[in-house]
């Protein structure tokens, strides 16, 4: 049966030539994507760790430089050498000034302590207390002082704050930088200077070096003690966390290694700060499950498209066995129905070949004819409605003007001239807007309407609004589209006025430049982003092509479309952020239109 059936032979052939390429492409794509993603993630993570190392090193060096700056103060060094001879008020004042200068130099410095080595003397200060001279030493700091003294850099960083993000705060919650202050040029240690630093900046820098739940980040001391951990289940127990011991024992200060122990299967990347900056180790772990997640997704998509392709091949193979004349007969019957006047015909899908395309185009043609018939009918109804609205508009404005005039008269009789002035402005605005007999007006008339609108806004916002209108005398009689300025100015009150800095300001400038009328509206709002400007220009293009888009920026879109209708390409509308802050809209109109 298979040998004699063309349909079966075609099905088998198409399945073979489809399955083999699809299967091979899925395997190759998965392997290539897997390796590419791993290399990309590793490279990005190493670059991120390096940047984090640079930031941490710079921050620690800045703090360390504060203690080194004390060597530039001869009076302070003399006091450190002979503290017993520095009890006069002048010397004490110098010492207090030095301590307070260091304390308030950095926002993260919470406290400063100076502990003399050979005497029971301590000078300390915090942002909650003044400089205190005490004789009580903290015995817990002896080990830290010895480490600072033995360090080739005379410095030791003692971390003492929560290791994990939601761990309960411990008693001190600080990082302390200890420096052995020596009697330069001798090697004798005079005192130990300790800076108590808030760990907030270190924690914030650490949080910027990994991505949420997909990656793990750890900050370790040179000995492997955990300073910061993004995973609550990981501790610095090097017996259970052998990878920490492995990193600490590495001779290289940075590198990458694969790890499949301690309940973790993935890639570990690490980098180390210089010993002069504490020698902390930055480690980042990414599991293979998260690392290859994108590769798995690509493989699933390929398999899905493979199944879809196979299904289409089978359907196409079965389709070629049907008679070609069957869809033609169906199409002919529907044409006869149309000839009888029955426009409500529905053709079945014939496929994607020439006959199917013919049936689809015929269906589109019938639907388009029905749409045109309905449109003409709706337009006729709309014209009737518009006629009624015109008749109504001839009555309503006249009644409204009389009502406003009556209210203004009552205001004057009751000695409330401000109410009369506001009603007058409102009456001008409504009379100007409801006058349907003119679509092009002199610029001076448009400016007067804009002034009335701004005066109403000024009455509403008072001293919180300031505006300035500048009009060149030579352009006052230039013809412009009616109500072309109000949508732009109203856009400021809608989007920029409530989120401004200080008093709201809007400036309107009209002048002549090279036979063109240049109208500029500038405000002091926050402006818009570059992406938003691109979206607005995209809406302009869509509106120019009569496409339906989003309903945002209706005012600006209305202005743009009207400029295109009146001037075609002779006019331009530019939107940009002002150099002084805020948003700027510029219209460039020909003073005389070519079609006049």
TrEMBL record:
Its EC number is 2.7.13.3. Residues 322-374 form the HAMP domain. InterPro entries: Bact_2-comp_sensor_kinase (IPR050640), HAMP_dom (IPR003660), HATPase_C_sf (IPR036890), HATPase_dom (IPR003594), His_kinase_dom (IPR005467), Sig_transdc_His_kin_internal (IPR010559). The keyword Nucleotide-binding applies. It is found in: Cell membrane. It is an enzyme of class 2 (transferase). It catalyses: ATP + protein L-histidine = ADP + protein N-phospho-L-histidine. The chain crosses the membrane at residues 12-32, 303-324. This is histidine kinase. It comes from Rossellomorea oryzaecorticis.
